Hints:
Number of helices: 9
InterPro entries: FAD/NAD-bd_sf, HpyO/CreE_NAD-binding
Structural class: alpha/beta
Largest sheet: 7 strands, mixed
Order of helices and strands: HEEHEEEEEEHEHHHEEEEHEEHH
CATH topology of the largest domain: FAD/NAD(P)-binding domain
Helix content: 10-25%
Strand content: 15-25%
Number of domains: 2
Radius of gyration: 22 Å
CATH architecture of the largest domain: 3-Layer(bba) Sandwich
Protein name: FAD-dependent urate hydroxylase HpyO/Asp monooxygenase CreE-like FAD/NAD(P)-binding domain-containing protein
Mean pLDDT: 92
Low-confidence stretches: 358-362
Shape: globular
Pfam families: NAD_binding_9
Number of strands: 15
Bound molecules: flavin-adenine dinucleotide
Organism: Halorubrum kocurii JCM 14978
Amino acid sequence: xxxxxxxxxxxxxxxxxxxxxxxxxxxxxxxxxxxxxxxxxxxxxxxxxxxxxxxxxxxxxxxxxxxxxxxxxxxxxxxxxxxxxxxxxxxxxxxxxxxxxxxxxxxxxxxxxxxxxxxxxxxxxxxxxxxxxxxxxxxxxxxxxxxxxxxxxxxxxxxxxxxxxxxxxxxxxxxxxxxxxxxxxxxxxxxxxxxxxxxxxxxxxxxxxxxxxxxxxxxxxxxxxxxxxxxxxxxxxxxxxxxxxxxxxxxxxxxxxxxxxxxxxxxxxxxxxxxxxxxxxxxxxxxxxxxxxxxxxxxxxxxxxxxxxxxxxxxxxxxxxxxxxxxxxxxxxxxxxxxxxxxxxxxxxxxxxxxxxxxxxx
Length: 362
Ligand SMILES: Cc1cc2nc3c(=O)[nH]c(=O)nc-3n(C[C@H](O)[C@H](O)[C@H](O)COP(=O)(O)OP(=O)(O)OC[C@H]3O[C@@H](n4cnc5c(N)ncnc54)[C@H](O)[C@@H]3O)c2cc1C
């Protein structure tokens, strides 16, 4: 991945033009890449160097503890939360859950029973590195039809013969959703008018996300690799596979086969509400979950509501806040929007809370 999909105003600092100033101050303005019909996008290197600069300038290391959170509990009758970790417990009065996407790669059914040394990997496996995929004689199949699959196929095609295998035709979209969804006013009108915890909310958010799409500049890279003969695109699905001495033997939905294959899956991650921590925190603190296990939040504060309708001091950011923050919740700008609500919520008196969906209180 050479550049971000999002624009130069989406970064982790608080000032909108911080990344642009950083680029200019370091004579790296050429790393703000111009894009047709869209603002400039930063290179990955520039974005990361700016992030490191923010971490240093804002002394974020001083408030960073490294450990795995296993639960959040509260002693009866106190306002104090105990954040339980594998390195002991931390006392606090507020908790923000910003646990990202799901932790488990999504695996197709046919992958269930392979030996560990089979030439099969998921792009998000810890051990997989697209820069060092290892020598392999046969063809590599990249399974997926989104931006991750697109980037991966281009990268692997620099070394080896690649087939990009997608269920559908490659769909081209510049952004992950219409930029209107960055604004609270639009989010409020489109989703806060629907009952918290309802399926209708999630449906609207999903309809707005351009999931499994590829931006035009990745499409161009794919076309170049295709023209150079290193890559082919095939539409279809693997229905079964066997491990052989030469690699995997694959059968496709049209009945055709391929032998001596390696497969790298770019099939996404399991939904974040399935993360065990989400279930544990909700149970320990009696917090309400709606459709598909998403937390039921106060849209104005992003505080997770208890099953009795009162508000906890556990707040949610990132993909887990999608039913309140909308289709950009899982993106950088969504994290910024969430921070605004958590730190400086709008006047609640102006907003009438909607009743929870009938499935929301469970
Ligand atoms: C290849 C790629 C390209 C992307 N490009 C863009 C882009 O161009 N623009 C854009 O806006 N977004 C992009 N994104 C998405 C971007 O990475 C996310 O928007 C951003 O990382 C979300 O931040 P987050 O804090 O919500 O979650 P994350 O960055 O995923 O962070 C979650 C954190 O929670 C930690 N965690 C989880 N569970 C526990 C636990 N039990 N205990 C302790 N810690 C825990 C994890 O270790 C991790 O550090 C891209 C993502 C990928 C993978």
